[in-house]
Amino acid sequence: MTDARLRRGRGSLAVSFFVQGVTFALLVTRIPAIQDRYGISDGLLPAFLAAVPILAGVASVMTEKVVARVGPAVVLRWAQPFVLLSLLAVGVGSELWQAAVALGLFGLAVGALDASMNMLGVSLQRAYGRSIMLGFHASYSLGGIAGASLAWVGAHWHLSLFVSYLPVVAVLLPLALVGSRWYVTGGERTEDPVAPEESKGSGVVFKLLMPLCLVMTFAYIGDSTVSNWSAKYLQDVLGSSEELATVPYNAYMVTTLLGRAVGDFGVRRLGATAVVRAGAVLAALGFAVVAVSPGAWVGIAGFTVLGLGLSVIVPQTFAAAGRLFPGASDAAVARLNVFNYVGFLIGSPLVGALGDTWSYRGAMLVPMVLVLVTVVYATSFGPRAARYGGGHERPRTVDVG
């Protein structure tokens, strides 16, 4: 019975990751269309893009406190429908203030969703006793591919944002609500107890979490560069059509999916440190190719390599935080998740500012250097990560969410 609940919980959470992948891809790959619909200038666009991660970070901090009372399953059950409805709202308005409200609501909902979703993932990995976190993020990548493909259809047929979004929300909203019935929370591990200095206060010592926070920030600076600027980079710098400009994010998500599909196996065999280091080097190579690309298709190839490299870093960072603080994994994940949005907050305006004042090609070198720094911090995924990711089964307990 316990195994069956775990399997159902794992499947339903994978569906949630998939739905969010579709939703987020539909937003970010249509940024040029959103900009045109609301008349957002190039100078103002970075401010709009920055507002979403700021509000998401606020919501992630608040989620830590809410989860302590009601659990992550309850938060996720209500946050996901709100994200979908916020996406639909983005396609409805025509005034600048309406775009600001819709994107603001989207950011708040995404913060709660991302935190609670990864809390459940870390908890289930602990219950399974082996690396499964990359599988959840693979579902997200699969959703991203579907969402980017739908965005391509919308751009190809010149569909309005509302017409593009409405059928997707109509399908995904009931799917998310039905799937949420089977969310489960894995019980706490009893092995590898937290060291005394890790148990003070809430159980999370920030200086121990800081290396993972930096890795998360650098990874999301890279990811936000692809999400927010790949379409614009292909159109404005490499001279592609609007239709072709939706392809880089799709290609990025395809290789992200491939990397995450095999990533758990790599962690079990080689350890998280080796996998994260290899990912960082590949991601840096991808940025270098994008920066020097002579045309659209070489640029797409660079984003493709970039996806393969970044694919393993974020899921393993969440997993490492759960291992580091097994008695306070929800709090660790909520605080670490804030640096997801710090990365977006830094990455989007940084690339935009460098692109306007210098060049967008040169701007691509900054995330390249930052992601390479991850190689230094990869030791934070070390002995505990290798031991926990080695495939040994642990005792399982389950709480229904």
Automatic annotation (TrEMBL):
Membrane topology: Multi-pass membrane protein
Span of the signal peptide: none
Coiled coil ranges: none
InterPro entries: MFS, MFS_dom, MFS_trans_sf, MFS_Transporter
Domain Major facilitator superfamily (MFS) profile: 209-401
Gene3D superfamilies (alphabetical): MFS general substrate transporter like domains
Keywords noted in UniProt: Membrane, Transmembrane, Transmembrane helix
Highest taxon listed in the record's lineage: Bacteria
Major location category of this protein: membrane
Transmembrane segments: 12-31, 43-62, 74-93, 99-120, 132-155, 161-184, 204-222, 249-267, 274-292, 298-321, 333-352, 358-378
Subcellular location, record wording: Cell membrane
PROSITE patterns the UniProt entry points to: MFS
Protein name: MFS transporter
Lineage of source species: Bacteria, Bacillati, Actinomycetota, Actinomycetes, Kitasatosporales
